[in-house]
Amino acid sequence: MPADARYRRIAADIIRRIEAGEWPAGAPLPSRRALATEYGVGEQTVRLAYVLLRDTHILDGEERKHVTVAHPPAMRTLTDVDAEWPYATETTDTRPRRASGDLAERLGVTPSTMLQHATVECLEPGGRSAMLVLSWWRGRRRPHVSYAAELGVTRLGEEHAHALGLLVDAMAYRVVRTRLDVHGAPVETADLILPMDRWTIRL
After folding, report:
1. From the first residue on, what is the mean pLDDT of each consecutive set of 10 residues in the chain (203 residues)?
2. Using CA of residue 63, residue 164, residue 57, residue 53, what is the dihedral sign?
3. What are the distances in angstroms from CA 26 to CA 22, 74, 203?
4. If we measure between CA atoms, which residue out of 166, 150, 148 comes closest to residue 158?
5. From the candidate CATH numbers 2.120.10.30, 3.40.50.11540, 3.40.50.2020, 1.10.10.10, the one assigned to the domain spanning 3-69
6. Rounded to whole angstroms, what are the CA distances from 201 to 20, 96, 121, 151, 197?
7. Is 89 in contact with 119 (CB distance < 8 Å)?
8. Which of 70, 113, 197, 201 has its CB 3.0 to 4.6 Å from that of 109, i.e. a possible disulfide?
9. Nearest 5°: phi and psi at 120?
C-alpha cells in the first residue's frame, strides 16, 4: 500500500476511534511509537497521520509532543457585542498605535494621534480561541453608556489566522463596535474578529 494511503487510512481509523469514544475530547493519544507498533507501520507514517489530524483540528498538540483530542469549537450566537466574555481571555498585544484614517474617524481624533491599544484573545473552555477583540482608545479608558455596531467580513492576515487556528486569507466576521459616552461621543472602538465556523450573528 502506498505511504500516502497508509497514513490517510490510519488518520481515518483514529477519527473512527475518537467518534466511538475511545479517546474523549482532551484525552492524550498514544505515542507515535506505540501507534506505529499497533498499526504495523513506521513512526513517520503515524507522524503524517497526526499532522493531517492537527491540520483539520481533530487533534491538538505540537510536533514531538503528545497530542490530544481537540475540543470541537462551540457554535455560538452573538447577540450582544458589548457583553463580557464568560471564559478565559489572554491579552496578546498592548503596544500603542497611531490612529489610521479609519480609526481617527471612528474615535473623532486627528489622524496619527497616539492611541492606546489591546488585542485580547477570548478562549473557549478547552483553550481554543473563539474570537479576537482589537480595541483602541485615547488616553485613559472612560466609561460608556451605549455603543454602535456594524457587521461585515474580513480576510484574515497571518497573525490573526494563526491566533484563531485558521488558514491565511480565510474569511471571518468583523464587528466594528464603538462605545459612546453619555453625550454620544466615542470613547473606545474595537474590531471583533469571529471565525465563521464558530459563530452565527443575531443583532
Report:
1. 77 92 90 94 92 82 74 80 93 96 97 97 84 97 96 94 84 96 97 92 83
2. negative
3. 12, 15, 33
4. 166
5. 1.10.10.10
6. 32, 30, 19, 9, 12
7. no
8. 113
9. -120, 130
